[in-house]
Design goal:
ArsR-like_HTH, mainly alpha, WH-like_DNA-bd_sf, elongated, Arc Repressor Mutant, subunit A, DNA-binding transcription factor activity, 3-stranded antiparallel sheet, Transcriptional regulator
Length: 123
């Protein structure tokens, strides 16, 4: 069980500490356009910038900027096939983010159970 409070990773008091390495991942996923791109890449296939511009409904330059943010956070990677650059999801990073969210959810559930027990004890 992870404890609440300021941990080694520098969590704010009263909140679970998350590894600092996860902050860029959550920041990158916090944009609606980037979430659309991630959803499109969830099919497990590599996609061209042309395909992804259709999903995002914006210019190639705009999509490329979003893809670079996702790549810097380790969420996507690119590979060159001939003259074309294809983008793919890095599932391991998404799994790490999911595990962190699962940890937070468990801790909130435990906190709510403690609160419920405290409130019911006074009845």
């Amino acid at each position: 069980m992870t404890s609440f409070g300021k941990g080694a990773a520098g969590g704010a008091p009263g909140y679970p500490a998350l590894p600092d390495a996860m902050a860029p991942t959550f920041a990158a996923l916090g944009d609606p356009t980037r979430l659309k791109l991630v959803a499109a890449l969830c099919d497990g296939m590599a996609h061209s910038i042309v395909e992804l511009t259709q999903v995002a409904g914006m210019s190639r330059q705009g999509v490329t900027k979003h893809l670079h943010v996702l790549a810097n956070a380790g969420v996507v990677s690119d590979l060159k096939v001939g003259r074309e650059r294809l983008w793919q999801l890095e599932g391991a990073r998404i799994d790490e983010a999911r595990l962190q969210l699962d940890t937070i959810a468990r801790e909130w559930e435990q906190a709510l159970l403690r609160l419920k027990s405290f409130v019911e004890k006074d009845d």
